[in-house]
Amino acid sequence: MDTVMEIDSQNSSGAPELINFLEINSSNVDKTYSDGEPNESESVTGIVNTTCESDCIKNVFEYPSLFPNRTLLELCSSSWSRSPKTKQNVQPYLRGCKWSPDGTCCLSVVNNDGVHVTELPRDLYSGSVTADRTIDVLDSIIHVKEAGLVYDFCWYPGMNSNIPETCCWITTRQNAPIQMWDAFDGSLRCSYRGFNSVDEMEPALSITFSQEGTRIIAGYKKVLRTFDVERPGRDFSEHKITSSASCFATNSNLLAVGSWNTTISLYNISEMGTYKSIGKMHGHSGGVTHAKFTPDGLRLVSGARKDHRLLVWDIRYYRRPLNILSRVVNTNQRVYFDISPCGRYLVSGGTDGILKVWDVEQVDWKSSLDVTDVDIDNVTFKFPIHRDCCNSVSIHPYRPIVATGSGQYHFTDPFTLLDENEPNILNRQMNPEELNSECEQEILQDLRYSQNTENSLVFWWTGSVPDIT
């Protein structure tokens, strides 16, 4: 039986009739190809320009309404577990997931297990679903076993499965350069290397593509480096910064750079790839881990580690936050959030496993903060979907589907390694009724968190379900 999450709240408007997003993409391929050949010459990396296709899709596609039934219906799931022969400190938990720009597959990073590409089942490309739909078990079609910690990853913005040359992503990981991977066979296409002043290769902490997809912007400890996508290797331009670049958000010619020193810097990027500083935004209490512009480009949303707030900024008046939204983040791990392509919904997970949704038509999270409002948590919907940290959320670009990932690093309880015969109160935690004092019960409660582990990637249906009352 399918898993259905339901909450109490106001109902939203019904979902419009959906369009098959693959048919939209296929109809625009004719505008790029003529007699089976690309209109533009292929680059060194094999990527062709697909900007015209994206513009056509935006003109004809109407994004469906999300959460009309105030429910989440589980569609598919995949999970990872540690091998019996693996060491105890190796934990394969999810560290992020992102839908491809064409919506056909989802890219996820698993700790100590590299990068996985998971396809969306074909029956979900169009139409609706019923409450009795069987939950699919997802298998990775591509698995890149990257060694070391993956710092950041990003899809090519013009990715289209009908044009294989555009199907790729880039990653940056520990002790390695920026690498571009093929999404069809998982092969390595090329690398982009950044070298410091003593000619030592150093890994980028964060990466992103420019909006048109012609440049790769990489953030390092004290410098921003820009690579030409068509010229792999060590050719790059530099712009010095005062602190490490932990995350990026791009919008047209604007670049927001988050930092571990709790600030966000705004830059204007010229056509030549040079950076002009606009200003800095202060407000977070921890290092900024994720930032994203709203589709209208006027607002920026940012989140930080061990900071329970999502800050909404108006980039025209960036001296102070425009609004503050509440979520639970009790870890240094990056906890992703996402904004729907229509700009109406803001969705975020948290270390409590709860998925929170803000609907701009019910909670005006884009307007200025009301200091007289005593209700800080003005969330529209709450879905308790994971028993562990919900660290990543990604909204499908065309369909009413949300991908979520769970997991975090759990420390081993040191008291379980003690001799069972040792008269220690923590050795009696198997039976809570034997605990004699409130202090002992509090200690037990503090240590229980490490036992609730869940490492999964789940697809949820957020659209209309006809037979749910």
Structure description:
The structure is a single chain. By secondary structure, the protein is mainly beta. The protein folds into two domains: 4-414 and 445-461, YVTN repeat-like/Quinoprotein amine dehydrogenase (Methylamine Dehydrogenase, Chain H, 7 Propeller); 415-444, no CATH class. It has helices at residues 21-32, 51-60, 438-447; strands spanning 4-6, 33-34, 37-38, 71-79, 94-99, 105-110, 114-119, 136-137, 140-144, 150-155, 168-173, 178-182, 188-192, 194-195, 201-202, 206-209, 215-219, 223-228, 237-240, 245-251, 254-259, 263-269, 275-282, 288-293, 299-304, 309-314, 323-326, 337-339, 345-348, 354-359, 381-384, 390-395, 401-406, 456-461. Strands 1, 4, 8, 32, 33 and 34 form a six-stranded mixed beta sheet that branches. Strands 5-6-7-9 form a four-stranded antiparallel beta sheet, with no helix packed on it. A four-stranded antiparallel beta sheet has the order 10-11-12-13, with no helix packed on it. α1 packs across α2. The longest helix has 12 residues, at 21-32. The chain is globular.
